[in-house]
Amino acid sequence: MKYRTEKDTMGDMRVPADRYWGAQTQRALEHFAIGMPTFAMPAGIIRALGVLKLCAARANAELGELAPDKAALIERAACEVRDGRLDDHFPLGVFQTGSGTQTNMNVNEVIANRANQLAGQALGSRTPIHPNDDVNRGQSSNDTFPTAMHMAVVDAAHTGLLPAVRQLRDTLAEKSRAYAQVVKTGRTHLMDAVPVTLGQEIGAWVAQLDDARQALATALEGVLHLAIGATAVGTGLNSHPRFGALCAQHIARECGHPYRQAGNLFAALAAHDALVNVSAALRTLAGVMMKIANDVRWLASGPRAGLGEIHIPDNEPGSSIMPGKVNPTQAEALTMVCVRVFGNDACVALAGSQGNFQLNVYKPVIAHGVLESIQLLGDAIRSFDTHCARGIAPNLPRLQSNLERNLMLVTALNRHIGYDKAAAIAHKAHAEDMTLKAAALELQYLTTDEFDRWVVPLDMTNSGANP
After folding, report:
1. Nearest C-alpha neighbor of 142 from the set 321, 350, 356
2. φ, ψ (nearest 5 deg) of residue 131
3. pLDDT > 60? residue 464
4. Which of 7, 125, 183, 235 fits 121 for a cystine, CB–CB 3.0-4.6 Å?
């Protein structure tokens, strides 16, 4: 491998000759060989920093802080970072300094070297574009990295997760409408309860998804406030007084989201409550998905010795030893994602509580946790929708059989013969393995006509049942 020599304030460093990064990135590579490649810095953070550097150059040029020709070079290189064309030049991981300084400098060095190359200069020349003085002008890692965190999270949520949730919600809403008249045994405490319709059961999942989606959307509103302009501690030192607000405006136009500079820049550096709230909303969504996935695999269990009340798609063989076995694999994959999200939320909550004075130094791990949860949930929900939810169908014979044997149908008799007599009917039917109707008639608590008029399962699913 060929090398070139680059310098920083601590001296010379050998850098691979074909790489755009510089001395500070190379030092970080040698000092933070932790958890790679599993914990590589998320691509969304790198792309967001590309957008940020692009917008910072524009803002600095407008404010007279950066010469137009320099700004143009930075913009060209930053666009390549934004578009993912330079991904191979960002080798660092999550576990580095807690402010994300190494990654911010990685981006500064790559943009500077690429810009200088575009200007016809050699890599490592630091002219006409300097990574600190020009690419990082008016900025600190302490405000650029949290700004990129927010941008990456908003982008990931709106392009991946929220559409996936909406699609699953619509799939289940259609199922709820289609099966509005399919009556089945309700269950509480995992025990038989009064009837519901399959449409009502699925409709509850839809309502949960609606609430979780709204909670996430509300949490994301707080992430629209950006730390840019705070520089090192929140005072904006070395930044033009209008730089942060103007840069945020450029970011908003570039990304299509209503970003704005945070109202209190000290808080924007010292705490990450907005991302902690997003993580909590993701945890809630994961809880909803855990409920739905578990309900589905219970309802589909069997197919002969379980509940077996719904059919789900047979996607692949389920056993290497039991021929013909098929498992609820989409539900299993989804629930594993959910527990991972629960773990990420615990990490993010603890990291978010660790701000000291003017800076929280757990920024990279917060960003990684939130972004991983967003990606995993989006992917898993999309897969569950495509390969499971769309294929849900009722097993009508099993539903009817279970319903007919449901002792809790006796609840419809409470208002007619009283709780105690109704309980006596249920106990007799269960103890002597007979139908509710036969037990009621044998006890002489009501007539055949009365039983048939009062115990109507579909009527029992409506609040005005059995007038």
Report:
1. 356
2. -60, -35
3. no
4. 125
Q: What is the C-alpha separation between 210 and 285, in angstroms, rounded?
A: 10
Domains, the chain, in order of start with CATH, read 14-137 (1.10.275.10), 145-224+269-397 (1.20.200.10), 406-460 (1.10.40.30)
DSSP three-state, residue 7: strand
Residue 319 known to be catalytic: yes
Active site residue 89: no
Among candidate residues 31, 99, 150, 189, the one labeled active-site is 189
C-alpha angle 388-376-316 in degrees, rounded to nearest 5: 35
Residues 6+ apart with CB under 8 A from 22: 6, 8, 13, 15, 105, 109, 112, 113, 124, 131
Is residue 431 within 8 Å of residue 439, measured between CB atoms?
Answer: no
CA neighbor of 406 nearest in space, from 442, 438, 435 = 435
Instruction: Report DSSP state, residue 121.
Output: P
* 163 Cα distance to chain centroid: 11
Instruction: Label residue 44 exposed, middle or buried (CB < 10 Å: 0-12, 13-18, 19+).
Output: buried
pTM higher than the cut 0.70: yes
Tell me if 439 sits within 8 A of 397, measured CB to CB.
no
SS3 (DSSP) at 239 = coil
Annotated catalytic residue, options 158, 225, 301, 319:
319
Tens digit of pLDDT for each residue in 341-357?
A: 999 999 999 999 999 99
Q: Distance (Å, rounded) from C-alpha 447 to C-alpha 327?
A: 46
Q: Which amino acid is at 305?
A: A
As given in the structure block, the two tokens for residue 173 are 């809403």
